[in-house]
Design goal:
- This protein is α+β, with helices and mostly antiparallel strands and about 130 residues long.
- It is built from three helices and five strands; from the N terminus they run βββαββαα.
- Strand 4 and strand 5 form a beta hairpin.
- Helix 1 packs across helix 2.
């Protein structure tokens, strides 16, 4: 099975991706020569990890009738020892005091089902090529 995402340039440092009927806009920060009008691509990558874990936590709670008010995920990024790149990502699932104790381990397991995380852990092969159309 193959799916395609079309990436185009929107002027300046803007790069957009069209996928499944949505356009995802990116830009670089002013510091990097952009206008700062949209998230940088790497920020979207990081957000995909947290929001993916979040949808699994949300679905877990919804399927059990557990209220989600007061639940939030806090994603922290730690630099590699070399100082270049991210060496560790930590997601803390903050639960309200009335969250059922019996589900605390299960909600962690639900977050760990994140497909983005699984793809990072078992990364796909990348092929970049130039073609004339």
């Amino acid at each position: 099975m193959k799916s395609e995402m079309i990436v185009t340039f929107g002027g300046g440092k803007k790069v957009n991706a069209d996928f499944n009927g949505f356009t995802i806009h990116t830009d670089q920060s002013e510091y990097a020569g952009g206008e700062g009008s949209a998230p940088e691509p790497f920020s979207l990558f990081l957000a995909s990890i947290g929001t993916c874990a979040g949808i699994f936590v949300l679905s877990f709670c919804q399927s059990r009738g557990i209220p989600t008010e007061g639940i939030r995920l806090v994603q922290s990024h730690f630099a590699k020892e070399s100082g270049k790149g991210i060496g560790k990502i930590e997601i803390a699932i903050e639960l309200p005091p009335d969250f059922p104790e019996k589900y605390k381990d299960a909600v962690i397991s639900a977050a760990n089902l994140c497909a983005v995380k699984k793809h990072i852990m078992d990364s796909p092969e990348f092929i970049v090529k130039a073609v004339t159309r």
